[in-house]
Design brief:
Number of helices: 2
Number of strands: 4
Strand content: 25-35%
Oligomer: single chain
Distance between the termini: 112 Å
Shape: rod-shaped
Largest sheet: 4 strands, antiparallel
Order of helices and strands: HHEEEE
Structural class: alpha+beta
Amino acid sequence: MLTLVNASLNKLQKGFTLIEVMLAMAVFSIAGIAILGTADTNVRNLGYLESKIMASWVASNQLVEITVNNAWPPKNNQKGKVELAGQTWFWQQKVLKTTDKDMRSIVMQVRLDEKKASALTSLTTYISKPSQ
């Protein structure tokens, strides 16, 4: 009698029903789409952060050149371009007066596109007038 019940149960439980398979596929596809979306966002953010770091290096290098030059900075704004990591970076120097007549504020902005209004990064330093 026991073998008859086991045989009956084996006949009934041979596999998944179509609804169960479709439900499992729907759950896995939703999870896969969410993972792909997250991965895509991370890749885009990684590229943006890499550009921001490179732009910061360019700005820092330009400010170091100004500091090492030890000359009183000009009042006019200077522009230039530099090659770093296989890309051309466009920098713009803005010299601003401060409340102290013997100090100037220098803002260095860096862009990947010269015509773009917003800069990727902007660094500021202060330089004092050299003593004579």
